[in-house]
Specification:
The chain is an all-beta fold and 71 residues long. The protein is globular, with a radius of gyration of 11 Å. It has a single domain, classed as Beta Barrel (OB fold (Dihydrolipoamide Acetyltransferase, E2P)), CATH 2.40.50.140.
Length: 71
């Protein structure tokens, strides 16, 4: 499972972006966060995550479907 860093959080809309694991920034939704609440995450925090390719739609790329703080 790749490790990355939370680059940006949009807390009022419930999503963020993580980068690392040889990828550009990857979108994640608050529903993908495991083991902690979304509002406990912080920009710059190291996390483990899994990436899934999103179905082809206008302007949407891969997304993180499982995000949790790294141990």
């Amino acid at each position: 499972m790749p490790q990355g860093t939370i680059k940006r959080l949009v807390t009022d809309r419930g999503f963020g972006f993580v980068s690392g694991g040889g990828r550009d920034e990857v979108f994640f939704h608050s529903s993908s966060v495991k083991e902690v609440a979304f509002d406990q995450l912080r920009e710059g925090q190291v996390v483990d995550y899994e990436v899934e390719d999103a179905p082809p739609r206008r302007g949407r790329g891969p997304r993180a479907v499982w995000v949790k703080p790294a141990n």
